[in-house]
Amino acid sequence: MNLLRTFVVVYETRSVTQAAHVLYLSQPSVSYALGKLRKLFADPLFLRNRAGLEPTPVAESLYPRMIQAIQLMDSVVQSATEFRAAETTRTFRLMMTDLALMALFSFVVKAIQEQAPLAKIEVTLLDVAQLEDQLRRNEIDGAIAVPSFSPDVVVRDHLMDMPYVGVCAASHPRLSAAPTVPELSAEQRVVVSGALGHQHVEQTLGQLPGQHASSIALPNYSVVDETIAATDSYCVVPLFLGDMFVKRSPVRKFILPFTLEPGHVGLHTLRRVAPSPSVEWLREVITEALTAYPYPQHIEDYDNSWFTS
Q1: Cβ proximity of 278 and 89 under 8 Å
Q2: For 290, which DSSP code?
Q3: Best CA proximity match to 298, nearest among 249, 247, 252, 264
Q4: Cβ contacts of residue 14 below 8 Å, gap of 6+?
Q5: Would you say 119 and 90 are in contact if contact means Cβ atoms under 8 Å apart?
Q6: Which of 99, 250, 274, 294 could form a disulfide with 75, with the two C-beta atoms 3.0–4.6 Å apart?
Q7: Cβ neighbours of residue 284 closer than 8 Å, sequence gap 6 or more
Q8: Cβ pair 17, 27 in contact under 8 A
Q9: CB 245 within 8 A of CB 220
């Protein structure tokens, strides 16, 4: 199994150095394991180029079968012991955006600690590019996020629809509670990094007739309310965040004059050959806990009263 894991991590990282770091091994140990694998399969498996290690066609064909074998063995080992939430000292590792942490984490951590008081919880910020690989390597147990991932790798549980709302300074001289597209297009807007999973918002805004390019770009939502309060700019944000901004800053919400697909928030876990009892428990706890979230779960249940201050 150690040889299989070494192959998979080298394949995913394209680096002996990085693989050694992930596996907590020395570089010579990883190189030795690769040597044994090359002899076993009578193939070099990885060839060095400027970008790192490039897998050969044989390695490409082996990778999905290696992953399946590892997942099966992990699941068999985990299933051998009945999972008891009340007794577990397991560390549950989640990946979330800063928005999910602000909006949802209190519900999640409360539910986990009520049922598994001895368990530990670690949260890292969402990294869309690394999510699938980290699930495969069991570095995380799940992720709460808007983007979709490969259904061959990830099981997605729908948690809620997250509509968007416009926000601007409470004293904005031109924007009403329901501005028109031309009125909105004439205003300066704040854009937040698409790495958080809301790329479709900027894509939709960019297609509006007469829309000006964004002049303020921020890495996350943490200072959006302070920014729009100090300027005649606006931003499109998830509804719950707009409500939070209204409570803490001199800003107001307004109805968007165009259709914008809501963010579909999901819980993403690894698709396994045999289910992991602890991860299945975690899925159930999180989905049940978020039914208490004080916003409708489906976009059809919202009306305009939700979108104005």
Answers
A1: no
A2: G
A3: 264
A4: 46, 51, 52, 53, 54
A5: yes
A6: 274
A7: none
A8: yes
A9: no
Q: Report residue 93 as tokens.
A: 């590792």
Give the pLDDT confidence of 275-307 residue by residue, as tens digits: 788 999 999 999 999 999 999 988 888 988 888
pLDDT tens-digit readout, 47-68: 988 878 999 999 999 998 888 8
Helix (H) or strand (E) holding 252: strand 251-254
CATH numbers and ranges of domains, the chain: 2-79 (1.10.10.10), 91-161+263-302 (3.40.190.10), 164-254 (3.40.190.10)
- For residue range 175-196, what is the model confidence (pLDDT) as tens digits? 999 999 999 988 999 988 766 6
Q: Provide the b/e sequence for 295-305 (b: ≥16 CB within 10 Å).
A: beeeeeeeeee
> What is the phi/psi pair of residue 189, to 5°?
-125, 155
**pTM attached to this predicted model:** 0.72
Six-digit token pair at 129?
């590019």
